[in-house]
Amino acid sequence: MKYPSYIFSIILSFIFFIPSLAISSTKDIEQLDFANGLFQRGLYEMAQAEYQKFVEVHPESTYLSESYFGMAESSFFLKNYEAAKEAYNKYIEKFPQGQKKILIQLRLGQSLFFLDQYNEALKGLLGVSLEDLAQEFHQVLYFYIGKIYQAKNENELALENLQKSFDFNSENSQATHALLAMGDVRLAMEDYEGALLYYNEVYTKTELEDVKGFALYKQGEIQFLIKDYTSAVDTFRSLIEKYPQQKVAYDARINFFLALFNVSKYDEIISAFEQEKDLMKAEVNFFEIYYIAAESYMQLKKYAKAEKVLDSILVLEDLTDEQRTKGSLKKVEVFVKVQRFEEVLAIIALQFATPVREEDHILFLKAESFYGLKRMAEAYETYKNIMSKYPESPYMLDALYGAAHAQSVLSNDQEAMKLFIEYFQKGKNTEKRLEVLYNAIVIAKNLALLDEGIEYSQLYLSNFPQSTHEENVSFWLGTFYAEKKQHSKAADVLKTFSEKYPQSTFLQEANFLLAYNLQSSDNLEGAIEVYGKIEKNEETEKLLYTALKNTAFIHLEKKEEGKAAIVIDKILMEFDQHDLDNATILWLAHQYLTEKKFQDALRVLEKIKPVEGDLVNIEAVAYFRAQAHKELGEHQKALEQYEVVLTTDGDNIYDSAVYMEKGLSLMKIKNFLAARKEFEKTLLQNAEDNTIAMRARFELANVAKQLGELEQAAKLYMLVAVLYQDDYYSPEALLHAAKIFKSLNRHDEAQKIFDEILKDYPQSEAAGKVKEK
Q1: Which of 99, 117, 146 is the last residue before a domain boundary?
Q2: Most buried among 196, 413, 642, 701, by the most CB within 10 A?
Q3: Domain-located, residue 19
Q4: pTM
């Protein structure tokens, strides 16, 4: 804010007109009359000389007191307050009962006020008797008492007395100055609204254009102070247009440009500058406006024009050192912007080798040039120099920002991260604070600094919601928690992310991590649901594959083998590059056999990967295929596979079962003799296993029955019934034996066996059949 160089005079007070004594004819009266006439015409120095001559020539005159008073008043109106004070005191000393004593007390107080002797002035003015003081001077008395209290920062007393001065006569010029002073008091009290009201009232009431201009300026000043730059622009523009010749117009013009700059109206600044450039020729007085215009061109990236404006003002010989340094540095800034870094370094070495007040600015421009030339180590050291040497510099934060980036380019990641965070904590530029915090998160992510990643991500999300990188940071926060094995927190963050960003490129990965962390938190149903949301494409194939494996694992953990089989089958069929081993595929085939999904069993067995010398798997595959074919009624194919099992020189773990299963298939194709051999082999190989032996004997009985060997069949059925206590085979064997006896007309034996079934196995299927008959 540019404050006015012009201070409006407040020394308005009633001039005491010394009465003309022209009616007398004496010489002393004529001389005094002459002095008074000069005084009344404002020729105070001449009047003062004549009063002095009168005192010297007529020391015994009855009008001597008038001359002493005239000398004092002349000094007062000449603003020689020290001389006025001495003259008023001399009058009191010579004429203690003088006619002008009360007025002189007022004048003496005013003089002391202007000499900044406030306590003495206040004491004198408070001692003036209002009863003895001419009424026309009451307003002046209140005014100066108020001004003294204002100078002493006793604002309430100041306002009280200034208001009295205004109320005494609200229409004269003294009232106007009272209003201005009350505006100043309100401004000092930071009551900006109240101050604006006073200044506006002055502007509205007064007819004096210089006062109007000053009051308008004060309004603009306050608007600028409270950062109402738009209103300040309008106010200063109005002042410039209405009162272009007033002294305050110069400062108003500068502040007009400053206010426009503060609301980023760079185009408007340039437009106004170009329009008024002829009126504001490149002169020292207009240095600030040219400087603002150059800065505005820079903001608009019109660097050539900015350089031209600066050149037009820098050629002036009468610039102050401060102005020349300021303008030269701005020109160097232009060179930095257009990447003329070598020139910048050369100019600094040539023009600014000797330290100046702007050394921090020079160092910053030097650091920026090093950075632009990719001389990062030098850039960093120069930025660091600013930070350590000038911690209060306006360039300190930008130096911190540059130092962080320099360290990042130098791959000093941890130091860069530290500096980025320091800028985030201290910086004022929101856009840069957002950027550096994001950079710190990226570094933490790349260095696997999980605690820092979590802390910085939380700061980012709380400080910059709805920002450009919020999506990335939200996702990374979930990954940081996941890697820390804080599964519940990870799940919460990733769930929110998936809901908020359904179109995110991270969605599939986020869903996978969400499901994994739900799984790790024992929320198995939730994990299955989210794993199921992962879609298959080129980018997510690996995620989907792992998701399916994890889903299968969860189903197995929950004893949901059927569901696990569906998932494993999906992996097997949809992923050519799967890593499922043959044991898993055999488990799947076995599960399908259990579920009687025989075609599915055969299908998945085709996915078995042959391994040279792996005879166990050859046997297993052949056995499962044989079982599936058998259950599908494809007995010839089953027999071929059973033969593979029996002829493979492996562990022979399926041989015992194969003899039985082969025999059953042979039965189905009515090759009973061959079937008998297989059942006999089964019995021989499993003599110690009662269950298999019982089954083998039962099937041998069936073979004998099919061959018409009824006696042998009945015997074998009874053998099963007698030797074994089995809820199914024992009553079934008895039922078959009874039927044979009945067919052989051995009804009594048959009936005994029927009774035995009903007695010993009343709940069996065989008992039901007996009851039906």
Answers
A1: 99
A2: 642
A3: yes
A4: 0.66
